[in-house]
Amino acid sequence: MGTRKKAALEQFNRDNILEAAKELFELKGVEATTMDDIAKHADYSKSTIYVYFKSKEDIYNSIVEDYMSILTGEIETCIDAETGFEDSYYRLCECLVNFEEKYPKYYSSLMGEEKMTNSRKRTDIINQDVGRELRDLISSLLEKGVKHNVLRKDIELQPTVLYVWSAISGIIQVADRKRDILKKKVNMDRDEYLKYSFRTFYESLVRR
Amino acid sequence: MGTRKKAALEQFNRDNILEAAKELFELKGVEATTMDDIAKHADYSKSTIYVYFKSKEDIYNSIVEDYMSILTGEIETCIDAETGFEDSYYRLCECLVNFEEKYPKYYSSLMGEEKMTNSRKRTDIINQDVGRELRDLISSLLEKGVKHNVLRKDIELQPTVLYVWSAISGIIQVADRKRDILKKKVNMDRDEYLKYSFRTFYESLVRR
DNA sequence: TATTTTTCGTACTTCAAGTTCGATTATCAT
DNA sequence: ATGATAATCGAACTTGAAGTACGAAAAATA
What we know:
The structure is a homodimer. Chain A is mainly α. Chain A is 75% helix and 0% strand.
């Protein structure tokens, strides 16, 4: 078999397995899904699974990487749009919110939490490859703000990239986890709260 | 034995076990610590451990609750101090930073992340008991701001409690996890970055 | 058809959580 | 002190899942 076809076939198998795993993770949760489950559902023998992935964590990480590039793509279209700073900012927020709604299971992994295991070995892919793209995107968002002269003059670009990222993702996380409290104590639904928070946060960035 | 003495003894045993578990969790990580390890190190038989705690997760959660009340206490002294809004705000930030430095292993659990397991059953204790205290403390911080007329007039108290909490904890989390990037790309050490972020964020709250 | 590669199936190993239960030891009430 | 009650021990056991081993079967290739 040509190496070309062979590689494609390998990719096909990997994708099948990942697809099956995604479905099960979604359905029963990551912990509750066993390698036997995945094998059965993907229609491979367990041995074959272990040919393509060296561990369950390996599978999980591959899925996270997939989602990471999807998210990066979506953010790119938000920020690259031909609009001003304010509009792009809100689009970015919206994009992250939508993503968190669609893939709550993966959101925290993507936002830089530990991977599956509690081991301290942090995979560098997110921090260095795809993460890089993200930082560049936010950086170009901020540059819009500079160009249109709406950013506060004392804003420094590089640290603000991380600052914006961390605050927005923190806000979304809490909005998800404290739904009850939002409802009961704050008397707001999640969307209202998010809108309010993003708007308030916006004020920390722009001239008034 | 009087029920009084008996209860005290039970507490004593529980505390011993928790103490041993804390040490091992610190030393080798939570996942890597087995129940046998804990039993041996605490000098009880495994059966006895299971008399006092129904699972490893139970132990972990108890430890988290301990730290939660420690943290709440520390925040209380920060905010109750006889100082103005700005000062209390920075004290709160500092307090959280210190805590994250001292107990990085527990920080994310305290901040509302999932517990040990990936199960969706969220323990309500944090959300309803101790979490309540925290929200009250931040609420009283904000009231200081209102009283001294430094808060923006369009700030609504209740949602802002969560807003402040989520942004601050997000900032600290990222500052910890992206140390490398801070150093290499932003050219700032963690403390500088935190100072910068807290100051910038402060601007989203106050009149200018 | 012969050879090599991939997949399969089954049984195995390992490891840790949690259980069982009879034996042992400590506590207490009389 | 002694017999009853309760707490602890220890050691073997069960369960469940990750990951491995390996020969048999099937598929692709030459």
